[in-house]
Amino acid sequence: MALPASAEHRLGLVGGVNFADLDTNGDPNATALARPAIGAVADIGLGEHLALRLEPTYLRKGGELEPGANPLSNPGGKLLSSFLELPVLLKLSVGEGLAPYLLVGPTIGLRLGADLEMDVAGLTFSADMKDVTEAVELSVAFGAGVSFPVGPSSVFLECRYSVGLSNRIKGGRVTAEGPIPVYLDFDKAENEYKNKGLQILAGVTFQLGGS
Predict the structure, then answer these.
(1) For residue 73, how many other CB atoms are within 10 A of its CB?
(2) Residue 147 pLDDT grade (very low, low, confident, very high; cuts 50, 70, 90)
(3) Domain extents in the chain
(4) CATH class name, domain 9-209
(5) Distance between CA atoms of 64 and 77, rounded to whole angstroms?
(6) How does the average pLDDT of the chain come out, rounded?
(7) Of 57-66, 76-85, 89-98, 131-140, which has the strongest mean pLDDT?
């Protein structure tokens, strides 16, 4: 693919925090958890103010479900998953020097791990959720940021919101380990949830080529 001569290509690092939350099936008691995010970033220039941003990132997703009216049948707990996130975002910049920009595009998440922690009547239980959750997640992300030159590099600050499009539960049974083993059954429709999150990121990039 031939790119415009004015296109600029950059490579760098990014890190920050993901305020991870859950979109559950009719449960309003999910609250967000702050979790780290770290990765690499590549801007492939498509024109003077247009680029394709590739941003492979390790981050944690999930949220905390508060106990229901009956804590024995609905104990709540923390549901956390780790992902290798692969966003492919269209980046539109405005101006030179201190340059605001907009981002939008799809994201593929590859699940690395998934865990559930519960408190029942003062007793702690934990379960490995990998067997009952989907290995791949589809999301859409959109956001905005600003970049500015610092010597030979460019520093950026970015705010992005990600919305999961796919149900994370595939169904099945897991064993929650604790004082006694507890068997938990998950139904794909009844226990449906999707990930969402607000990401605050900062990073630095270096020019690789272009004019």
Answers:
(1) 9
(2) very high
(3) 9-209
(4) mainly beta
(5) 6
(6) 87
(7) 131-140
**In this predicted model, what pLDDT tens digit does every residue of 20-69 receive, in sequence order?**
888 886 555 677 889 899 999 999 999 888 999 999 999 999 888 776 54
Residue 4 has pLDDT above 90, yes or no: no
Which backbone phi and psi does 181 adopt, to 5 degrees? -70, 140
pLDDT of residue 184: 85
Residues composing the chain: 211
Q: Kindly write down the DSSP assignment for every residue of the chain, as one continuous string.
A: -PPPTT--EEEEEEEEEEEEEEEESS-TTEE-EEEEEEEEEEEEESSSSEEEEE--EEEEEEEEEPP-SSTTT---EEEEEEEEEEEEEEEEE-SSSSEEEEEEEEEEEEEEEEEEEEEETTEEEEEE-GGGB-SEEEEEEEEEEEEEEETTEEEEEEEEEEEE-S--B--EEEEEBSSS-EEEEE-TTTT-EEEEEEEEEEEEEEEEE--
Distance of CA 137 to the CA centre of its chain: 10
